[in-house]
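sry for the spam today, last one i promise. struct tokens for design, 330 residues
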């Protein structure tokens, strides 16, 4: 009787282990943890929102665990990086050019953790830089601006003269001059990513000097530039995200960064143990594009739309090569 009870108990134990084993294996699969540190707010319809939405897209499509901190100053970013690293995050994305120094300092202390530096220019064994070279789509909206200008004067405004912003604005200038070699392009770097009031003032100066189309490439400063264009009855072209919703009767188009595409590629590489030193995706690779014209399509002449469509096709086919200029020119 004792032996029978022993055998029955042993059988029950074996069955229980067999039943629980799949759940133990599944529960033991560690979800990749990805954190993102942002310089601004996640609803800015620009740089930060595009990144946040890309992170959420990765969470949904790749099943990773995510976290983020918004409105992080350069002075505070090292602390936030260390907190995520200490918490065991596998990939930490520092989504600002200005975070570079802190990224490399913290990465040295956490060699097993992967870091991404947005719009950077150098790497380390566990640090990759990622960017969306927008010189080609800058060229396309430059063509649009010059084609829609009646004064022969247009404006281009950026946050700082960092490579990702400069290349978009220099591309814009080249595209405009391809349409009108005599066009005047006013250029201003605000020296801030979020100061909408300062950006509005700079845009108004361009408009007062005769610019009737203004292009903006920067975070929260987009609000100020687009508001100035709306108030003065001129056109604006957005940057980073499709900014049509900010002023439907003012925004002709935007240069759009496909942030989710790049973040997904980085995460997949970390999962596969193939983390690279850089992730750069231009128009040809699907990293950037020109936004739809939306309601203003009806005011853009068909020949202008056709000319831009042909230029885009030529870029994709390698027939048109737009120089990638990362330092401001006159």
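last one done:
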């Amino acid at each position: 009787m004792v032996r029978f009870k022993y055998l029955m108990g042993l059988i029950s134990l074996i069955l229980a282990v067999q039943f629980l084993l799949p759940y133990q294996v599944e529960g033991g699969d560690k979800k990749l943890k990805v954190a993102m540190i942002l310089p601004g707010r996640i609803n800015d319809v620009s740089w930060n929102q595009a990144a946040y939405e890309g992170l959420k897209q990765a969470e949904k499509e790749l099943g990773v665990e995510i976290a983020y901190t918004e409105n992080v100053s350069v002075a505070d970013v090292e602390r936030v990086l260390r907190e995520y690293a200490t918490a065991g995050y596998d990939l930490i994305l520092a989504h600002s050019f200005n975070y570079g120094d802190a990224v490399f300092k913290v990465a040295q202390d956490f060699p097993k953790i992967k870091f991404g530096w947005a719009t950077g220019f150098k790497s380390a064994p566990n640090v990759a830089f990622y960017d969306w070279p927008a010189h080609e789509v800058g060229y396309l909206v430059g063509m649009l601006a010059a084609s829609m200008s009646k004064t022969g004067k247009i404006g281009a405004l950026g946050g700082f003269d960092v490579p990702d912003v400069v290349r978009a604005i220099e591309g814009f200038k080249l595209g405009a001059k391809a349409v009108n070699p005599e066009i005047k392009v006013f250029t201003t770097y605000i020296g801030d990513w979020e100061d909408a009031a300062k950006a509005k003032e700079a845009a108004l100066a361009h408009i007062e000097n005769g610019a009737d189309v203004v292009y903006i490439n920067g975070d929260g400063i987009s609000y100020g530039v687009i508001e100035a264009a709306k108030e003065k009855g001129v056109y604006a072209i957005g940057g980073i995200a499709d900014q049509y919703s900010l002023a439907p009767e003012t925004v002709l188009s935007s240069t759009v960064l496909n942030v989710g595409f790049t973040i997904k590629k980085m995460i997949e590489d970390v999962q596969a143990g193939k983390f690279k030193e850089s992730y750069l995706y231009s128009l040809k690779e699907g990293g950037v594009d020109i936004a739809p014209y939306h309601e203003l399509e009806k005011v853009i002449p068909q020949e202008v739309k056709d000319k831009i469509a042909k230029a885009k096709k030529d870029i994709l086919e390698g027939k048109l090569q737009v120089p990638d200029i990362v330092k401001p020119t006159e």
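The longest helix spans residues 2-28. ok im logging off now
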